[in-house]
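Researcher: I'd like a candidate sequence for this fold, 210 residues long. If you have to choose between options at a position, lean toward the conservative one.
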């Protein structure tokens, strides 16, 4: 930051906190320009897009997009649990996956597109009839998602958001509380996602890399 001098009419440029949506290769930053003179000073502000590898170099994003992901079909893994932010298994502690859930594949691309391949059938949760059974294939392709490093509340390393209402698009099950998902943990081979905000019923999922 350059300090202005009232005698010389020096200019100062002050950077404001970063704002805007995160997209691959760009970040919005606010700048304020101040002009000082003997009569006082004036200022103006503008938002400038700075080209950077913000998201592409984010460690969670790199792991997320490196491989496709499937629900963990390991026996006794309790892959899907339901509860509250403080106790994610409070309402449902887990159980075996249905056959049609075991071959569901989720692919996140670096250009912010999500493809869900149900491979013939999707498991209907409590919000779609017939309930709690394998039914029609609800696959979708190239749905734009947003990725935000960090979380605004609750646990997590990063946030994934899908557009629209459930169950047109979803991750994990068709009756998640919202299309807000937090990455709780992620490695090259495993990922834990938690759907819902801290004030909502949360669904937590274990995924394995394909």
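Model: Candidate sequence:
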């Amino acid at each position: 930051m350059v300090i202005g001098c009232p005698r010389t009419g020096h200019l100062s440029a002050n950077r404001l906190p970063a704002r805007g949506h995160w997209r691959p290769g760009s970040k919005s930053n606010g700048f304020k320009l101040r002009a000082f003179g003997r009569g006082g000073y004036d200022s103006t502000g503008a938002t400038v897009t700075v080209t950077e590898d913000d998201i592409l170099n984010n460690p969670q994003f790199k792991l997320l997009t490196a491989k496709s992901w499937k629900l963990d079909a390991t026996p006794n893994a309790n892959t899907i649990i339901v509860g509250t932010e403080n106790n994610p298994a409070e309402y449902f502690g887990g159980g075996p996956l249905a056959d049609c859930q075991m071959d569901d594949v989720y692919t996140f691309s670096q250009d912010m597109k999500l493809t869900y391949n149900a491979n013939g059938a999707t498991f209907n949760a409590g919000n779609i009839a017939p309930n709690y059974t394998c039914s029609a294939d609800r696959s979708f392709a190239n749905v734009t998602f947003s990725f935000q490093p960090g979380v605004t509340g609750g646990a997590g390393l990063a946030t994934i958001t899908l557009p629209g209402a459930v169950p047109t698009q979803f991750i994990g099950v068709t009756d998640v509380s919202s299309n807000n998902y937090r990455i709780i943990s992620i490695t090259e081979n495993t990922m834990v996602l938690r759907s819902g905000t801290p004030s909502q019923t949360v669904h937590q999922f274990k995924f394995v890399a394909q």
